[in-house]
Amino acid sequence: MYRTGFIFTVMAKDKKSILVYADWISIFEKLEDAEAGVLIKHFFRYVNDMNPNAPDRLTDIIFEPIKQQLKRDLKRYEAICLRNRDNGGKGGRPKQNPNKPKKPSGLITNPNNPNEPDTDNDTDNDTEKEINILFDVFWNLYNKKVGDKKKCEKKWNSFNDEIREKIIDTLPAFILTIKDKQFQPFPQTYLNQERWNDEIIIPALFVPR
Predict the structure, then answer these.
(1) Which of 1, 16, 105, 171 is deepest in the core (most CB within 10 A)?
(2) Counting Cβ atoms within 10 Å, is residue 24 exposed (0-12), middle (13-18) or buried (19+)?
């Protein structure tokens, strides 16, 4: 997903449901009831395409990983819809040629040169794996735009999808532990030191009254 950059609306046309993850309870359990109420109202305004602005800094930071997960889910949903439309336009799933049965997996097609890649036309072409979360999501969420951005982006792109998702999921809590922003490490330092693995203790927070 980190290639040219796309902006997705939260709800696709005719889509009336979203995925809610059970482990989000860990976010809500850390909030006061009033704070959780503000967050859930912001959540439903967002998924109903009301384009809400976060009412306070806490809601903005806490909601960011939820928003990114919603976008990932929407991208998967749209990809499935597109695939189904393509298959429908072609009359359904293509049928296998009975005169050319599928080769069993693990078959060596060239025993004289077993390391030679299979050039059979039926072989699926590998496509370049897309990055699931754009670097700018991290850069903007980290909110300390200092240091060599290009090197930082290169480091970000070297991670696998699981690590990038973990960073975005844990980063809001990490930022909330920084009482003075001058002590917040540079973004590249945060990535190089794998600070997302730090034990995080969130201080008591309250929504501004």
Answers:
(1) 171
(2) middle
DSSP state of 167: H
**Whether this model's pTM surpasses 0.85:** no
Dump pLDDT digits (tens) for 142-189: 888 899 999 999 999 999 988 998 888 888 888 877 878 888 999 999
Rg over CA atoms, the chain: 22
Q: How far apart are CA 114 and CA 134, in angstroms?
A: 38
CA dist., res. 133 & res. 167, Å (int):
10
Read off the tokens for 27. 């976010």
- Please report, for the chain, the start and end positions of each structural domain, with discontinuous segments joined by +: 20-92, 130-203
Contact present, 196 and 174 (Cβ < 8 Å): yes
